Input
Amino acid sequence: MGQRVRLGFGLLVWLVADLISASSLGSLQRDSLAGTLSGSDLSEPRSHVHVPWIRLSGPRDVTMHPITVQCKEAKILVTVRRDLFGTGRLIKATDLSLGPASCKPTSSGAGETVTFEVGLHECGSILQMTQDLLTYSTHLSYKPKPSDSQVIVRSNPAVVPIHCTYPRTGNVSSKAIKPTWAPFSSTISTEERLAFTLRLMNDDWSAERTSTVFYLGEELHIEASVNAGDHIPMTILVDNCVATVSPDKDSNPRYNIVDFYGCLVDGKQEDSFSAFRSPRMQSEKIQFTVDAFRFAGDTKSLIYITCSLRAVAIDQAPDPLHKACSFSKVNSVWFPVEGPRNICSCCDIENCGNPEDLTRRLRPFFPVPRRVGRAAPSASDLNLPFEAQLEDVVMGPLLILDGARPPAMSKDQASGAGGVAELVLMAVVGVLSCMAFVGSLFLCQRRKVVSAST
Output
């Protein structure tokens, strides 16, 4: 009887220890994988590929991923498995293309993979700049075409956004940097260049959003900003924003989101609540929300947003040409982020002025600060051309999907699940402790009986 108790107790202890060690190892592996995928090292080029039909619930097997991207010094290498959807059916290489320019594969053949190797600026890729990063964005398109003898296709078209991110500081090349003398005129030109950015933000505006995939019914949180550099403080304005299915803002179909020098006209639509965020948090930034949408009949489900951004002196008074106006459905009126309400009245008549009016009223907000050892700027340096104070910035491609986003476990649910697991573990430990105590008493009693009998 004593040997059975000891064997049973030992078996239970071994099972619990094995479970705890396996759980700890799995948690360690998940943490390690999360750290690898997060790409916290900003000193090296990084790639980001979002395949919409892959839903990962556990550790990702990179070798089985249908698309891999290598961001090189001046090129991007995209390798696509012909079993793109993981169904065992191989797609045709001729149905694949890269970027808005629809570049064809550089190598394919009868193998299981298709390869694209193109320059960073080729195939219509889009460059987005922030203070620290350069991001080249493109997309892989799959458009199945029927065979000559058929009029049907057996698979859906698909679009996969691809991004390559590079640090703006440092040298990503292994070659030596050759120092060069920059003439004073080119140095002044570089200093006078303004850095405009347009980026997606997360729901609480605290950080940049990493995913460019949205579902209908969600909101796009957009932030426009300007980096003044050595110049005096400035205020940024959004003159207009247009959505298209290609990076060309003049292409069709197109949809105006902001128009008439700062009127967020999308917010006046019956099914939209788009608006500028008020009050403005910083003069060099302006934020607004746009309800997600897609173009009817477009199979790609992709949109590009091009915004004309303009920087003005921080003391520029708001007026019909310098404004940010949203439409209130509650009161059926336009209201500005700053300034009197009447500056938005032109949004109703859809005429807030002409570009000629803007250039005539434009006043220089430069010069570049004079530095020790440099000559004083000339009169031409004090008056920048109008084009130097505005820029068209493209954001995209954004993938807009039908349906609702798959539900994710909330923080409360996650903490509740963790609490239940802890309670179960404590209960198991408690039961084992009781069994150990009872077993010890039983063994002691058994020894006393044996001793008395002998």
